[in-house]
Amino acid sequence: MDQFFVKWLTAHGHADTVVDSDGVGVRDNATRLRAGLNGSKRHDNGSFVVEIEFTVRMASGGEITEFVAGIGETEEKAINDALLNFTLTTFHVVYKAFINAADPHMIQSSAVINGVNRDVIAGDILLRGGSSSKEMNFNSLRPQIQGAFQSLPLTPGPHWIKIVYSQNDRQPMTVSATLDNSDHAALTEAVKRLEWPPADGFYMAKQFIVVK
Predict the structure, then answer these.
(1) 3-state secondary structure at position 142
(2) What does the pLDDT look like over 90-105, one tens digit per residue?
(3) DSSP state, 137?
(4) What is the pLDDT of residue 145?
(5) What is the dihedral of CA 176, 179, 185, 188, to 10 degrees?
(6) pLDDT digits 0-9 by tens, 39-70
(7) Which of 45, 123, 159, 188 could make an S-S bridge to 208, C-beta 3.0–4.6 Å?
(8) Alpha-carbon distance values, 3 to 93, 109, 186, 192, 195 (Å)
(9) Can you give the pTM of this predicted structure?
(10) Alpha-carbon dihedral 184, 199, 195, 97, rounded to 10 degrees
């Protein structure tokens, strides 16, 4: 998995990529990235479902941990699917927040959270599902999601939030919000009340956010 991070950072112009006992990163930056296969299952139809554990160690010493699933006709394709999922939802946010503040792919905004002005980097909302769901615009949900965590009593220093919502035939299925790797009941309830677009069939939406 190290080579995935090395290739990604190199493609983003980092000739200073380093690999050490703590993981992969760039020179003169303490942030380190690691990943490992946490599970792999082959279904009766021959397809694979895998789970990869990603760990981001920040300069502060704290660690972001995320488990990401992937599916594919082979185990390799399932792993690549999970790596793509992580890249589209989490990696760009982590890169902007902790490695390269000048990265143009993500926008850093300001928000007042529990009376304190904080920097917020919100990733794209990744959508998986049928063709009807792909035609829907989820951008209107972005300010709603930010409003859902505006009253959280966050301590100084970085925090991270992961939002997952799925529905099938207009009925909610998985609704989950985590704060700093842990389930957060109040935030999950707030996310459940958001105006998620109803759709026939299945879709799942995911967003990763860093607050500094």
Answers:
(1) helix
(2) 999 999 999 999 999 8
(3) -
(4) 95
(5) -40
(6) 999 988 889 999 999 999 999 889 999 999 99
(7) 123
(8) 20, 32, 38, 38, 40
(9) 0.92
(10) 50
* Structure-token pair, residue 62: 């704290």
Query: Residue 11: how many CB atoms within 10 A of its CB?
Result: 8
Residue 197 reports pLDDT greater than 60 = yes
Residue 38, token pair as written in the block: 């946490």
- Cα separation, 203 vs 189, whole angstroms: 19
Spell out the residues 6+ positions from residue 49 whose beta carbon is closer than 8 angstroms to its own.
40, 41, 43, 69, 70, 71, 78
Would you call 28 helix, strand, or coil by DSSP? coil
User: Which tokens is 128 given?
Assistant: 């998986």
CA distance 10 to 17: 7
Q: What b/e string do you get for 111-127 counting C-beta neighbours within 10 Å, with b at 16 or more?
A: bebeeeebebbbbbbbe
Give the pair of three-digit tokens for residue 74: 């082979």
Provide the β-strand partners of residue 70: 50
C-alpha span between 190 and 171 (Å, rounded): 17
Give tens-digit pLDDT for 115-143: 999 999 999 999 888 655 556 778 889 99
Q: Which amino acid, 194?
A: L
Which are the contacts of 104, defined by CB distance < 8 A and separation ≥ 6? none
